[in-house]
């Protein structure tokens, strides 16, 4: 059972950063060198890039299904899942760009904060 499926109560707001991000961060932290080589190979090959996009779409669909199973209605479940996958992907990219000093969980958090800042309404001038 995934971290998303484990919850039983209906979320008050769609979770922008799924709980599974932290678990994935722990696993990927140990494989930074491989993740960097993998990202470079995907960037250099159109077929691999297309395959990666399909995998991310499947992850978003599975996440949306888990959120619906927890009681989150549409379109919020799909939106939260899509945003969560996008934040995770952006966090991984940020982490790899940071080099050896970066931490994946921190990079995901920073990416989430950046998105939140962009979506915060500006005060009327």
TrEMBL record:
<protein>
    <recommendedName>
        <fullName>MftR C-terminal domain-containing protein</fullName>
    </recommendedName>
</protein>
């Amino acid at each position: 059972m995934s971290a998303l499926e484990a919850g039983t109560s209906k979320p008050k707001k769609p979770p922008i950063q799924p709980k599974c991000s932290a678990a994935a961060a722990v696993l990927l932290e140990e494989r930074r060198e491989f993740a960097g080589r993998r990202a470079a190979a995907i960037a250099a090959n159109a077929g691999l890039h297309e395959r990666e996009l399909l995998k991310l779409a499947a992850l978003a669909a599975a996440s949306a299904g888990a959120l619906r199973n927890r009681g989150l209605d549409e379109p919020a479940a799909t939106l939260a899942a899509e945003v969560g996958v996008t934040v995770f992907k952006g966090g991984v990219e940020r982490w790899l760009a940071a080099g050896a000093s970066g931490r994946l969980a921190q990079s995901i958090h920073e990416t989430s904060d950046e998105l939140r800042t962009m979506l915060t309404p500006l005060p009327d001038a």
